[in-house]
Amino acid sequence: MAQTAGQTAHERAAEWLEHGGLRPTRQRLALATLLVGDGEDRHVTAESLFEMAAGAHEKVSLATVYNTLRAFCDAGLMNEVVVDGAKSYFDTRMDDHPHFFWEDNAVLTDAPKEELEVARLPSAPEGTEVSRVDVVIRLRRNP
């Protein structure tokens, strides 16, 4: 999504939703503004986005946040990154790139993609294709 100089957070969010073919409901606009309104990429959990919304005095339920994040992923606006099979993070950066998962504080950040080399992937089973490869590098601080 190309950004225009002088664009407001609300305009940026509305354009983002339009890019995904989503109707700009009040809740979607509010959450999209928190996610992309400043033009920065971010990683959120449903819970952290819910807390951001509450801090911005936006009235949305946690269930609405989950459903909206799912709609954003289905529309190709975000990627879901699953850590430990139970914890999902949602990433607004859509190019292929690896992540660092900081175990001490459960934070997901981008890792430098220019330093990652994937030499070969296994062949996909017959009748399937690889849709995406997620690389999550788990970090633990030295004692």
Automatic annotation (TrEMBL):
InterPro entries: FUR, WH-like_DNA-bd_sf, WH_DNA-bd_sf. Keywords: Cytoplasm, DNA-binding, Iron, Metal-binding, Repressor, Transcription, Transcription regulation, Zinc. GO terms for molecular function: DNA-binding transcription factor activity; transcription cis-regulatory region binding; zinc ion binding. GO terms for biological process: negative regulation of DNA-templated transcription; regulation of secondary metabolite biosynthetic process. It is found in: Cytoplasm. One of its GO terms (cellular component) is cytoplasm. It comes from the Bacteria. Belongs to the Fur family. Homodimer. This is Ferric uptake regulation protein.
